[in-house]
Amino acid sequence: MANKTRSKRRKTKNKTKKKFSISNSIFNTPKTVYKSSDFNTIKYPQIPIIKYIALRYVDNMVKPSTVKNIRLKKYLLIEYATRLKILLKNNPKFKDKFRNITKSKIKNIDKLSPTMLEKVYFQLLNLEN
Asked: Is residue 65 part of a domain?
């Protein structure tokens, strides 16, 4: 009888505990979480930290190919694709130039490779200036 209780004790001692990590926290979730304000009147979006960093990188013209973090690179590519769509929507002149560079339709922006997306976006921005 004593051996059984010892073996049970050993099993309980050897269990691994879950560690808290920042990568699994609410700040790194891909969806935008809405939190209520101090007085519970208006719900405002709480942007995840990784999305916020990606927005700052795009504003500072950082290329996704230079970033080593895979999750951050994914958000950078999404942000560049959305900004390219907005750029093409607002400037009809760029649609022909986009077709000449990529030889594809505008609907296929999401399917472009990361290097091609960078190349097209920066070339169109240089044409705009």
From this structure: yes
Task: Report if pTM > 0.85.
Answer: no
Token pair 């505008």 in the structure block, residue: 106
Is 88 inside a domain boundary? yes
Is there a contact between 105 and 76 (Cβ–Cβ < 8 Å)? no
In a domain, residue 70? The reply is yes
d(CA 89, CA 84): 8
**How does pLDDT run across 28-75, given as a tens digit for each residue?**
566 677 788 777 778 888 788 888 899 999 999 999 999 998 888 999
Contact between 64 and 80 under an 8 Å Cβ cutoff? The reply is: yes
In a domain, 79, yes or no: yes
d(CA 60, CA 25): 26
Q: How many structural domains compose the chain?
A: 1
